[in-house]
Every structure is written in C-alpha cells, then in structure tokens.
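sorry for the late reply, my laptop died twice this morning and i had to redo everyting from scratch. anyway the thing you sent over, i finally got around to it. pasting the sequence first so we're on the same page, its 120 residues, then the predicted structure underneath. double check i copied it right bc i was rushing
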Amino acid sequence: MRLHLLPGIALAVLLAGCDTRTNPVIAGLDEPPRGSPNITIRPNALRLTVGQTAQLVLITDRILGPFTWTSSLPGVASVSNEGLVTAIGTGTATITVFSGADPRATASATVSVQPSESSP
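ok and here's the structure:
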C-alpha cells in the first residue's frame, strides 16, 4: 500500500495488482501536477456598505494550501483567514488569496464599500 499525504488530506491507494502505466488515475498520483494551477474567488466583485460582511469562496483545481488572504486597503475592507470580508470604511480594496505551496496560484476580488445608510 502507498500512502500519499496532502495538506489536510490523507489518501491511501492500494496498488496490488494494478499497473500504473494503464491506469491514468493511479499513474497521476505518482506524477507532480503539470502546468499552472487554477484558482478563482467567487464572487470576484462585492458591493458592501460599512459594517457589512460577505464570504468569499476559493475554488481550486488542486490542493495548494495553506492559503493566505490579504487586503490591499485594510482600512476599507479586512479579510479573515477563511475569506470573510468586513467592510470597514468607504473606498475600493482588492482582496487577494495566494498559495503558500505554489506562488503561481493567486486570485483576486474587488470590494467596493459605500457609506452606511444614516438613521433618520
């Protein structure tokens, strides 16, 4: 039995009697990923008012973690380690997520923050 460990996931594959040359699924486990990774953030644009929060979702075609979330303007919009955005002040900020495992893996979303509605 071969044990392939990935961040946060353990995958055990029993290879007895399997020929990795004819089984592309099993053969792919022994090969490093090819090409640039593909990650995106959904939604890729947010319109919030001061004080609101919104959850961004990271979509990836490979396990590339750990991921780091950053804000270009933390005084406009902050972001948690899980992609929860909080509107702090008016303006526009870019939220970027990148992989610690592969520097090519980045994605961004734009957050526009408007002033909150005043109470009458």
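The longest helix spans residues 24-29.
thats about all i looked at so far, will dig more tmrw
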